[in-house]
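> example.struct
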């Protein structure tokens, strides 16, 4: 993509808008990510590399683009987990210069708690940091927690990761899970059943890879070959990421379906299920509340 002045994420303003427009004016983040990678030449390294908190750098930039588009009224924020294009957004068609000016107008409007304008240089905002976009976070300290979780997950034993994965799968609805983890079983680390309704359940086999890099397409092909005829679906969990080829192979039609759980999704599930993390209460001062009672300047 063409290099612009300012943060690199502003290059994603128009792709996010185009994607939402093409997807019917609303979509889940994962649908937008997929649309952009299919319609724009995103560098492989950007898609596969992660921040310190385990998030894809590509998805992180798209998240920041959505944040600014929402602040500018081009994307609605009424429902978490669904991005909705507004009437203003439907009409938007940014040139590179317009994208920068749009970003700068919003960035310059931000105020610090004490009422001082934020003097951060727009050109240096976000790109050199691993911070998630504010609206993409559920907890104030989520970046710090996720970074620590990544280090913990990549430091546990292979067997420990298999057992943790099984525990996570139990939490999200799997039954009769057992960890096999036997050598010579073509990489299958466990199996169980997912209850679809009161009468139907499907057999699932899973594989766990404690990686720091990317899982190649070969691993997905080997895993599918191992579960073919033995399970109706597979789940591949990793502390790394998946190459584009691996994702395409997992989604291949007329083949045993394989769900991919990378480090980003793994952290998301652990936090959602409260595994390895605890919520704590904290107070913050509502400065706006006291505004009417302050002395006039």
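> example.seq
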């Amino acid at each position: 993509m063409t290099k612009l002045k300012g943060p690199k994420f502003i290059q994603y303003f128009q792709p996010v808008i185009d994607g939402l427009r093409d997807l019917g004016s609303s979509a889940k983040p994962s649908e937008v990510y997929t649309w952009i990678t299919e319609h724009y030449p995103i560098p492989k390294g950007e898609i596969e590399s992660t921040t310190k908190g385990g998030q894809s750098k590509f998805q992180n930039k798209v998240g920041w683009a959505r944040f600014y588009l929402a602040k500018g009224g081009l994307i609605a924020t009424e429902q978490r987990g669904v991005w909705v294009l507004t009437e203003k957004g439907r009409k938007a068609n940014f040139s590179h210069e317009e994208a920068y000016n749009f970003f700068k107008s919003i960035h310059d409007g931000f105020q610090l708690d004490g009422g001082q304008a934020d003097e951060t240089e727009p050109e240096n905002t976000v790109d050199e940091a691993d911070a998630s976009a504010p609206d993409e976070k559920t907890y104030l300290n989520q970046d710090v927690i996720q970074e620590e979780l990544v280090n913990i997950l990549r430091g546990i034993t292979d067997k420990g990761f298999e057992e943790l994965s099984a525990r996570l799968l139990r939490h999200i609805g799997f039954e009769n899970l057992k960890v096999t983890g036997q050598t010579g079983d073509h990489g299958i680390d466990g199996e169980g059943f997912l209850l679809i309704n009161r009468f139907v359940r499907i057999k699932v086999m899973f594989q766990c890879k404690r990686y720091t890099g990317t899982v190649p397409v070969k691993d997905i092909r080997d895993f599918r070959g191992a579960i073919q005829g033995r399970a109706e679906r597979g789940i591949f969990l990793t502390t790394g990421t998946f190459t584009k080829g691996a994702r395409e192979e997992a989604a291949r039609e007329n083949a045993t379906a394989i769900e991919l759980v990378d480090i980003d999704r793994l952290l998301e599930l652990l936090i959602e299920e409260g595994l390895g993390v605890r919520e704590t209460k904290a107070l913050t001062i509502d400065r706006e509340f006291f505004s009417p009672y302050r002395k006039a300047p």
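> remarks
Confidence is low (pLDDT under 50) at residues 111-121.
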